[in-house]
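During the no-cost extension, the postdoctoral fellow (Dr. R.K.) reprocessed legacy sequence entries with the updated structure-token encoder. One reprocessed record is reproduced below for audit purposes.
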Amino acid sequence: MKFSAKSRYGIKAMCVLASQYGKENLSASEIAERTAVTVPYMEKILRTLKNGGFVSSNRGTRGGYYLCYPPEYITIGQILKTLDEDMFTCECLSNKCINPSCPNREIFGVIYDSINQALNNLTFSDMIKNNQTRDLKCNID
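Re-encoded structure tokens follow.
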């Protein structure tokens, strides 16, 4: 399964915001800098996350973006579904397969279910705990 750039950068942005939860709001440019993403693209991602109800923002000198919920209540799966609606691993699972008895349907179904279970159990709290010894400015795609 390959995730889009939008999803990868959105996960990075959420990790940055999770690390700042309860501390300070961050501007789109600060988040973009910490995630090595252009500001316009980060603004687009943040708009999608805001429309999904995961982040909010304030204007003014203390303005910026922040998480709407504590990081332990937001899962990676929720964010991926918000940023990329279609997370099927192959056509066999998306009902585009022309063979109703496709042998791949079962195995890819198991893989799909396993991946989604892992993503739906991994929270941003888990992510920031796992990244405490590393710099959150991850430049790896």
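The radius of gyration is 17 Å. Strands lie at 55-58, 64-67. The remaining legacy entries will be reprocessed before the final report is submitted.
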